[in-house]
Amino acid sequence: MKLLKKFAVCLFGCISLVGISHAMPAKMGQNLIVNGNAESDGIGSRHGADVIPGWVTQQQGVAVVAYGSQAHLPSIQHSQQIHGGRQFFAGGTMKDTVLEQFIDLSDYSSWIDQGIARFVASGWFGGLLDKNDAAGVSFTFLNAQQDIVSYRLGDIDAFARHGKTGFVFQDLTELIPIGATQLMVTVGFNQMGGDYNHGYADNLFFSVNVVPAPASWVLVLSGFLAAAALSTQYRPSPSQIKEPGLVG
Ligand SMILES: [Ca+2]
Hints:
The protein is an alpha+beta fold. It has 5 helices and 10 strands; from the N terminus they run αββαββαββββββαα. It has helices at residues 2-22, 76-82, 109-112, 214-221, 227-231, and strands spanning 56-57, 63-66, 87-92, 96-104, 117-127, 134-142, 148-154, 166-175, 182-190, 197-210. A 5-stranded antiparallel β-sheet has the order 1-4-9-6-7, with no helix packed on it. A 5-stranded antiparallel β-sheet has the order 2-3-10-5-8, with helices on one face. A hairpin with a 5-residue loop joins β6 (134-142) and β7 (148-154). α1 packs antiparallel against α4. Mean pLDDT is 82; it is low at 7-22 and 223-243. The chain binds calcium ion (CA). Calcium ion is lined by residues 37-39, 84-85, 87-88, 202. The site of calcium ion has 8 residues, from β3. Keywords: Signal. This is PEP-CTERM sorting domain-containing protein. Residues 1-23 form the signal peptide.
């Protein structure tokens, strides 16, 4: 009888939580960055693109480059290591270039304003051999008063890449500041020398989740010890990647 009672309580809890999850925005947990993977057009050139879907290109210098398009650039093998698809972003022909994108967070206000919304941000950041050109991304949260809280990933220099051409993964999970209504995503490419900006970026990712993740709650209530594993299904951390996007 006791067991039946416990089961009924658990079932009620699960049904309630499923009900909550249904009320959540459809994109909860999904990547909200448009064209964060540089795959939304077929440019694939070393030169700057006039238009990159999803992004405002402040100096029109940022290039969408095809993996393996030139011998010294990141290869198809690099792409296979990081699931990079056909193309990546490069700083291009301008010394310092920027991509910018705004993401509306108002669909998530109920959770953000309770302090229970967290974000997961990640990306692959790279460069060429011993050149210190680097790309980094700032995630800047804005509220109605334009007060800002900012986080940054990337800026991987040649030392961090062991002097190899390729990409290094970085990720970050934090609570979204209470009151945030908008996110500004700014990708900066900084050239340190030479005649081409070899700061690279690919697979830029930003998602919103609730703390703790509803799926984990259901599993905990159901008594499954696997809950912890499921709730950390986001992305591998750098320490889990043996050779993070760097080929010989
Ligand atoms: Ca890509």
